[in-house]
Every structure is written in structure tokens, then in C-alpha cells.
Predict the 3D structure of the following.
Amino acid sequence: MVKRLSVIDSNRCTGCQSCMFACSRRFGVGGLADSAIHVRSVGGIEHGFVVIVCRACPDPPCAKVCPVDALKVRVGGGVILDSTKCIGCGLCARSCPYGAIFWNDRENKPNICVYCGYCARYCPHDVIALEELG
Amino acid sequence: MIGLDEYIRNVLYIDLSRKRFWVDDRRELFEEYLGGVGVASKILMEECPKNADPLGPENVIVFAVGPLNGLFPLASKTVACFKSPLTGFYGESHAGGRSAIAIRQAGYGAIVIKGASEKPVYVAVHGRRVSFRDASALWGLRNSITVGRVLREIEEGAGVRTIMRIGMAGENLVSYASVNTETYRHFGRLGLGAVFGSKKLKAIVVSGKLTLPVSDKKMYREVYDMIYESAIKSAAMKKYHDLGTAANILPLNSIGALPTKNLRQSSFEHAENISGERLAERYLGRRVACAHCPVACIHLAALREPYVTEPYFYKTTMISYDHELLYALGSMIGVKDAEGVLKLIDEAEKWGVDAMMTGTILSWMTEAYERGLIGVDETLGLKLEWGSVEAYTKAIEYIVKAANELYGAAAKGLEALVERYGGEDFALSYGGNGMPGYHTGPGAHLTYLTGARHSHLDSAGYSLDQEILKGKKMNVQDIARELYREESWRQILSSLVVCFFSRGIYTPENVCKALKVLDYDFREDDLKRLGERILRNKNQFKEREGFNILALKFPKRIFETPTSFGMLDEKTLYEGVKEFYSILSAED
């Protein structure tokens, strides 16, 4: 079954950003530069948090705008990045209405969610979970 | 030893006088002292000249993070070092929020702010880009929360930035003005806000995103998981998550250790009303976390207040509460309901003052008013009586604005008040800093007096007292030795820089494991010796500035009100101070 990451209840989010650190740690590194998930406040911490994840769109705009076909539409929804093709133009990031494509300045390429769910394992408050599509 | 990490060793120097900045590679400092307080206290010694005026351009502010920030959970704190305008000696304050992650991810181990600007400025640090920006339009804002709201809109880095700013108290050089970060966390103690104000520095915004490499990826994940699992499973952490530090109010009250009404009592008849339990049931609106902390101990109360002029018109304010605030602006000044305390906490937040110091100032003023040392002529008509929330609200504003001689002295601190109006015996001052919220016994008071920054967190004597209450046998010399050991170890925790609440997880053994992942080779003994060395360095700065621990006095009041152990013996406590000093100086 094809999976995607889902925001179950952003009201439970405390803004600890453990998910963001987990995403970079998949590569065995610290910091946040390699993360494909983002948490920020809703205009001030008193109002709570926005959790930005790739929604694995069935008809993803990011894939449509890629001039070099580096983003392939995954069967069932979402995209798969072929970074050897990617020229780092940034069109994909600009086309996502959720802002769910994050830029990796070191690589000058996008950080694209691979729907692995590693981040969800480190959410202490059940805000996000991996779910089956379809 | 830190070959792997090309970022931690970078120190960003910002000269506000000349509007210049540069980055120095201070590898040697970070190799020797790790980071955080170890490094910041050394830079303070280098950069702050002897006898510097704390509010002069020669004072410096050093923010430092450590190797574990950005890599391990609960490593969420930034240390600030400066010369304190409140005590005139060593200033050190810690804050979380997103400050530590932002500084580390901007690519720095430390940020040093020197000189003073002629005109109000704020500084934006986005990775390697550093900009001086005009803050004249932000100067004079009545509410420090608004400063954050404005900068949030015009600066980049949402989610990965810190916005450290001051309120009007900092601008007006109130000696215990705080620096607010991410609305609900503070560099609260010892007057960093006033040092910002003296430099005409309204705020500093820092953001960045970096990849931090490790020496062994597999080991990194293993050590990470071990720390993360302990954090989310431990009972201590659960307590901080459920009720927050406010959980301490009722237990302290029941053992007769909750300072009340300027410590004329050690239990409060209305403790239930301001307890963590009551606040959680009736007011808790949201729990939030510092960046990279799964615990989320920050508790925000939702205070709903009607407008009296119009029916069905309400405002809801989110107010962060902790034990220390509930004590200082609650029991200590006799405020008997949660709503009153929350309103006063919000006032402290808006003006940007240290809530704890403000509480001890107001409690002194209330007693002085009761005793007739000051009257309505001095208070500008305010009847400062226990629990008088409205009068206190106005008094905080008068203090921030130094509205007359009394409030001007109050803006300087307890010692200035005592010098002008008397009442020394009931001024709860420890080397100039106001008393924290624990009257547990000898350990607590020895910590306040001997701790390098006169903070309960220096060596946590309040915690030791509670162990002794449970049956641990210790005389005052034993207590002094234990406090020295604890304070030394805490220098390591605040050099890494991890939250003190996670001290049970970051044991010497686990710290070594985490450092090993980053290619640091430290053994437990090395760390213990390093902790002692850092503590000595801090004391060296204080002594350079003329500090003499043996000249410090305990407030008389603490010997007049029973602790959990009954009455404290003055002579015994001073023996404890002597013992502590002899250990500290013997190491020189």
C-alpha cells in the first residue's frame, strides 16, 4: 500500500520540532538543513503551530512544473525525486501551495518527503502519523 | 578534537559602536571549555575590562551554545554572560525557546555584542548575513510582546529563528529588566535587559539551517534514542509536562517552604488557588516546548477577561506561568487567586522585568508601607497592601518609569531601597538578587548566597533540603561540599548546553557518550574537573571586580520564619558559607 504522512491534530503540537530533527537524522546528521517537514507558529506561539508536510497529491503541481522531469509522480500520489536530474531551479518549491518543499542550500536542491514516517516515530504527542493512501 | 564541527568554534563579534561585525575561529576555547557557560565566561573575562560600568559601552554580552545543541534532545538552552547591573558582579542568565537552536544553526558557537549604538538598533543575523537595522520606531513601545509581533512579520526564518527583545524596562535601564525570547521564555535574571537598553539594542534576531555532521552515524542514532526515550518516559519529565514547575506550589506549601508575604510566613492560606493543579484545571490553554525538547514544560494559561464597558466583549490573553512566578507575584505578595497572579505575570511580561525580582521588590515595599517606612506620599497614592493586584499593577509601571524617588530606587533594586528607606532586615536580597521561591532549609539559602549568580538553579540546595527531610544525614559542611559538587557539575550541563530539568538523563556517563558521537574524547573525571575549573573562572571574574563572598549577608528575615526544618541557625549557615568558600578557593 502507498503511504503518506498525515497531520492528525496540529492542536496537539507543542512546537518541539522533534519531527524536523528526526527527518535530518535519517541521513545520520544533526541540524535541520536536510529536513522535509517544518513546524512554525501560527503567527505567534500563543496561537499554536502549523505542521507543514507533503500531502502526496495525486496530481502534484511540483511535478508539473519541473522542467527536467526530476520529479516523478508516484503511483497513488506524491512524487519521487531523481536528484541526478535536478538542476536546482526551485520551481517545485514555488509551486507547492502548502510550502511543503524545503530548500537545501548546501545541495541547492529540494528536500522532498519520501513518506518513510521516521519523523512520526519521534512525535511525542501524536500530531503526525503515516497513513495508507486510497 | 572538534575537527568534525566546523561551526561551533565560530564566534560572531558584533560591535554596536562602529556597526561592524566579524567572525573569529576560537577553536582553542571550545576545545578546552566545550561551549556555553565555559566559553562565555572566558570571553566575558577577555572582553569586559576590570571595573567596567555594567551600563557603559565597555560591558559586553556573550551568548553561547554548546556542542550538543542542534544534535540531541533537551539540549535547548542558550547561556548569556555579562556584567550584571543588578549585583555589580557576574551576570549569567539562561533561556530556551528557539534561541539555542537558532544560534547553532546560524553557524555560531557564540555571539559577542560589544560597544553601544547611539541610536536604537536591532541586529538581524541570518546565517552569515549580519545587518544593523534601525529600531527607533520600536523604541518606546509599551508592550514587549508587540516588538516580537512586528519583527516576526518583517524578518525571515519563521520556525527556525529566535527573536530576543527587551521591553520598556530594558530601555529605561531597570536593573532587573529581562530579555524576552519567543514570547514565553526569558533571560530573566540579573538585568540583561538593561544591558541591551544601555547599548540601545532593542532586539536581536537569529536564524539559520545547517547540517551538523557526526563521527559515527549509527552510534548517533543509538545515543539519541536512548536520551529521547528516557526523556519521554521518565517520571520527572512527566511531571514537567503535566503540570509544569507549578506542580511545586502545593508540596512546598505542605512542608512549610513556600515563601509568603515577604517571608513572614512559609505557608500560604490560599496556596490551593494558585497551585499548578488549579491552573491546569481552570486556565491551561496550551502547552508548548523549547525547540528540540519533547517534554514541553511551558504552560500557557488562557485568561478570559470581560471589558467592563461593553457586554459580551472579551479578551483572551495567553500567559505563561511557572513555579517561580506564582511564588513571586503570588504567595510572596499575598495575591490570593490565580487571576490576580496571571494579570501581574502579564504586566511583568509586557514591561520586560524579571518577575522574581519584581515580586521581592513589591513584597519589601508592602511590608515597608505597613511599617510606615514609606507612605502614600512616596507611593504616589498607592495603598500597597498584601494582595492588592491593582495597586501592584500600577506600581510596576511606576517602577519601570522611575516615577519618583521611591520608584527610582525600586528600579535599581532592594539594596537601593534599603539604603534610602531602611528595612534591611526584611529585604530578601542575596548579593543584590531577590530570593527564589523555596524556603526549604539550609541548603536553599546556602545556594542563594554562594551560587555564582545567586540563583536557586546554581546548586539547587532546595532539592538537597528535600532529600535531607526524607532522612539523608548531613551537617552543614556536608551540605556545602555537596552544593559545590552540584554547582561544578552544572557548569558542564550549561556548557553543552542542556536544560537542567534533564540533569537526571544527562548523567556523566551519558554526556560522555553523546560527546563521543561528536568525536570529543572526554572521560567522566575530565568533565568533573572541567566543571570545577569553569566555576573557578566565574569566581575569578567576580573577585577581579572586588567580590568577597565572606562579606555577604543572609537576610535577617530568613532566621525569623520557620523552614521545613524549623528555625535556621544563623551561625551554622555562615559556617556553611565558609566551608563552601574554602573548597572553592582551595582549588585555585
In short: The CA atoms of residues 46 and 125 of chain A lie 18 Å apart. Strands of chain A lie at 3-7, 30-31, 38-41, 49-52, 71-73, 79-81, 102-104, 109-111, 128-132.
